[in-house]
UniProtKB/TrEMBL annotation:
SUPFAM superfamilies: GroEL apical domain-like. It comes from Dicrurus megarhynchus. GO terms for biological process: chaperone-mediated protein complex assembly. This is BBS10 protein. PANTHER family: BARDET-BIEDL SYNDROME 10 PROTEIN (PTHR14667:SF2). InterPro entries: BBS10 (IPR042619), GroEL-like_apical_dom_sf (IPR027409), TCP-1-like_intermed_sf (IPR027410).
Length: 210
């Protein structure tokens, strides 16, 4: 329930509504409008490739070495974004914060990015889509992209002054997610209404439990 409702203070209760899909309460790190059905990739770590293995020190002795290392990182990041583009991946959903080089090439290749998702949000998206997070770097940096989620729409949503992300997923299970936009004059009223609704849903679950 916490991931399927958004409280919006400062508006009358009558402005409350139910929206298909889910609402992520953060803005796009990169937004590239795309029409029609598209693919989304879930990641849980930064996509900027590491120069060394964990626990190994990387020493730069000159400006030339530093520039060469940065060019290598940029080439690897660009190659990944090209692969995403060729697989029709237009949305990156990340629990990690991505670095500027990733955002730059995402914009260049038409990939929208939403970062810093909570573990609960990532788990909900995985449950809806049946897709597990992708690990692009490691021993095999060219691992095939096989698990992508089908997204029916992806667009910005403005809730008073807060910019959010509104996404519709093609669900692989009977669960068809909808998000409750709960409006009220102040936070306290919204919290009361949210608690009452959550209790009502819990009661309905118990009534219809087989």
């Amino acid at each position: 329930f916490p991931e399927l409702h958004a409280a919006v203070p400062g508006l009358p209760l009558a402005r409350s509504r139910v929206l298909p899909g889910i609402v992520l309460r953060r803005d796009f790190a990169a937004y590239c409008p795309a029409d029609g059905e598209l693919r989304a990739l879930l990641v849980t770590e930064p996509l900027r490739p590491a120069l060394t293995a964990p626990g190994v020190e990387f020493v730069v002795d000159s400006e030339g070495q530093y520039q060469a290392a940065f060019r290598w990182i940029a080439r690897r990041t660009e190659a990944l974004m090209k692969r995403l583009q060729s697989n029709n991946v237009k949305l990156l959903l990340s629990s990690a914060k991505q670095e500027e080089v990733v955002i730059y090439y995402a914009k260049l290749y038409g990939v929208s990015v939403v970062e810093c998702l909570s573990s609960e949000e990532m788990a909900l998206i995985s449950e809806i889509t049946g897709v597990s997070p992708y690990t692009p770097f490691g021993d095999n940096t060219d691992r095939e992209i096989t698990e992508t989620a089908v997204v029916t729409f992806c667009q910005p949503l403005l809730l008073v002054s807060k910019r959010c992300v509104h996404i519709g997923f093609s669900s692989v299970c009977a669960f068809q997610p909808h998000c409750l936009i709960l409006c009220g004059p102040v936070d306290g009223v919204n919290e009361q209404h949210a608690a009452a609704l959550q209790e009502a849903f819990t009661m309905l679950q118990q009534v219809f439990k087989t």
